[in-house]
Amino acid sequence: MKQIALTGIKPTGHPHIGNYLGMIKPALELAKDYQALYFIADYHALTTVKKKKELEDLTYQVTATWLALGLNPDDVIFYRQSDIPEVFELSWILACFTAKGLLNRAHAYKTLVDENVQADREEDKGINTGLFTYPVLMAADILLFDTNVVPVGLDQQQHLEISRDVALTFNNNYREVLVVPDALIREDVMTITGLDGRKMSKSYNNVIPIFAPSNQVRKQVMRIVTDSKRPEEPKDPDECNIFSIYRHFADADAVEAKRKLYLEGGLGYGDMKNELYELLESKFSDQREQYDSLMQNRKELDQVLEEGAEKARYIAKRVLGKVRKAVGITGKR
Ligand code: TRP
């Protein structure tokens, strides 16, 4: 039987090519070797997204994004967290095995506390309990499916450690009931550079969106920062922000040919930007169309997610059943 890989996708706005290369593409590749469960973490988003329409829109956007970029719901169990009531029951049980001190030290919470302290405010001002217990819900997401590996970015490493800690504490008290998951950390995410050479990130406003209209994609590509070398001058490709994106999309021969041209001289940044733009167009224009058409049809998106939830709950019920039994909950389910 295949091992289980599971990850949660926090619904955040328009995806950019850094998200694609750093998370979506590797996750889709991983799904070839594992039974993958990928879900939209809508209840995690509720800790910060407090506008009804925004949460709805984000949920559908991220669903359409993954489907348009190639997630096949026949291979991947693709669902919405909120469709799995078992998660929330397990979350309570796990909370009873989570040292409060562990949550006090969680980075996301601690950062907010530190900000309050710095500003001379009461420690917990403006911090809701959902934010505080976020890692417990995340442990439930993971442990509910006997997950073996969790592909995440570096920023989630601590959350994974908390999940492991909770599973071990639980198992220590009873017996080996829960599978203790391993993190699969993608360090390479850091190397995807944005328009200005820093890591591509929405908060730096240096991204190339995937599903924006072509003229906007073009505009962003033209904004890529370069030095002022003239076309005939030799250049170092590894110092060039255009090349650093180009090399992820072009095939290996083309990348080598370009590398040579950089080193020898004879390549202008303007032409190189055009070429990158054309490459992105050829890569994503079909998917953009598919994204747009999926976004027109929310019923279909709901249906895909509901079918995924049904498959997920089949596993969830079994695992929750063994947990309830282990702790001594006597009622029928
Ligand atoms: N906290 C994760 C993030 O912000 C999202 C997430 C929720 C998650 N539940 C998960 C990731 C379970 C992996 C496993 O990106």
Q: In a nutshell, what does this entry contain?
A:
By secondary structure, the protein is mainly α. It has helices at residues 17-30, 42-45, 52-68, 85-95, 100-104, 107-118, 129-143, 157-173, 214-222, 241-249, 252-264, 269-295, 298-327; strands at residues 4-9, 35-40, 77-80, 149-153, 182-186.
Which fold name is given in CATH as the topology of the largest domain?
Answer: Rossmann fold
In this entry the ligands are: tryptophan
Which outline best applies? globular
- The CATH first-level class of the largest domain comes to Alpha Beta
User: How many strands, which pairing sense, and closed or not: the largest β-sheet?
Assistant: 3 strands, parallel
Proportion of residues in extended strands: 5-15%
- As a whole number of angstroms, the C-alpha radius of gyration is 22 Å
Distance, first to last CA: 27 Å
Helix tally equals 13
